[in-house]
Amino acid sequence: xxxxxxxxxxxxxxxxxxxxxxxxxxxxxxxxxxxxxxxxxxxxxxxxxxxxxxxxxxxxxxxxxxxxxxxxxxxxxxxxxxxxxxxxxxxxxxxxxxxxxxxxxxxxxxxxxxxxxxxxxxxxxxxxxxxxxxxxxxxxxxxxxxxxxxxxxxxxxxxxxxxxxxxxx
Length: 169
Prior knowledge:
The protein is built from three helices and five strands; from the N terminus they run αββαβββα. By secondary structure, it is of the alpha+beta class. A hairpin with a 2-residue loop joins strand 3 (65-68) and strand 4 (71-72).
């Protein structure tokens, strides 16, 4: 009997050893600098790890990145067995921004850069290069309105400068 019980005990200890071998421990360094240990099964994928961390941080999974040794862990289906045991994974925020995008001329078939300030059309709200910045050149839809405004301004100016003849002097 003792041999049976010892064999049962050894088989249960070997199965618990196998379960211990199947799980691995990793450390996750959070955004605030806190490091948390995680014991995960060996078949855990990166997407599962992202989901666990998003639950812990109360953030949606797409709003942060996972890094190991300076490289982003991007493949969601790859298992964590590719990482060495007792490794540290950093949680980082994605980089936003960069250089401002060059504004292109909005005239059809023109690929030139739009000129700042002088290339902005206040009538059609377009942005144009040096060749198309004039209303006539980019065939502005507000060209008639512009002509009417200009005509009214000139008429008002002429009326204000008109000399009146005083009769009877």
